[in-house]
Amino acid sequence: MTIKTIATNRKAYHNYLIQDSLEAGIVLTGSEIKSIRAGRVSLGDAYIRPEKGELWLQNAHIARYEASSYLSHEPTRPRKLLMHREQINNLTSRVVERGLTLIPLKVYVKDNVAKVEVALAKGKKIYDKRQSIIKRETEREIGQALKKRR
Questions:
Q1: What CATH number should be reported for the domain whose range is 3-124?
Q2: 15-52: b or e for each residue (b if 16 or more CB lie within 10 Å)?
Q3: What is the DSSP letter of 78?
């Protein structure tokens, strides 16, 4: 089993507290999968919206594949996510009930199939973001100090 990570959503770890994550498949066209394998994916503003018992990936930018015809895909079109019905119902109820958000953490290719890691997250407040920045900077300073001592 080979897993190749294509894109990660680094903003997600800064803006959200990640609670739970699951794997989901994506419904893609031929030019989209070729563009994903070429690494031309951006998850910066992407989010997942539950609609009518289905999950839809919104605002994920998959660039047009250069070698495809002029009838290639729309880069930011909504894409359906594939999960078990039980998982979808569980995630949807937790989003509605607790005010959580569904976000994509990363896109990867697993055994020649494109997958998305979907996370259930809660938005951070400004002071939480400041605390995480301070923590990251102090860890970096400690690491640099230890490196200089060697």
A1: 2.40.280.10
A2: ebeeeeebebebebbebbbbbbeeebbbbeebbbebee
A3: -
Q: What is the pTM of this model?
A: 0.76
Structure confidence by residue, pLDDT tens digits, 86-98: 988 888 888 887 7
CA distance 88 to 64: 29
Domain definitions of the chain by residue range: 3-124
Cβ(91)–Cβ(113) below 8 Å: no
φ/ψ of residue 116, rounded to 5: -125, 135
C-alpha span between 150 and 88 (Å, rounded): 51
If DSSP codes are grouped into helix, strand and coil, which group holds residue 2? coil
Q: Tell me the per-residue pLDDT of 11-20, one tens digit each, with 9 for 90 and over.
A: 888 788 888 8
End-to-end CA distance of the chain: 39
> Which residues sit opposite 122 in a β-bridge?
17
Reply yes or no on whether the pLDDT at 78 is more than 70.
yes
C-alpha distances (whole Å) from 7 to each of 30, 42, 86, 93 are: 19, 7, 27, 28
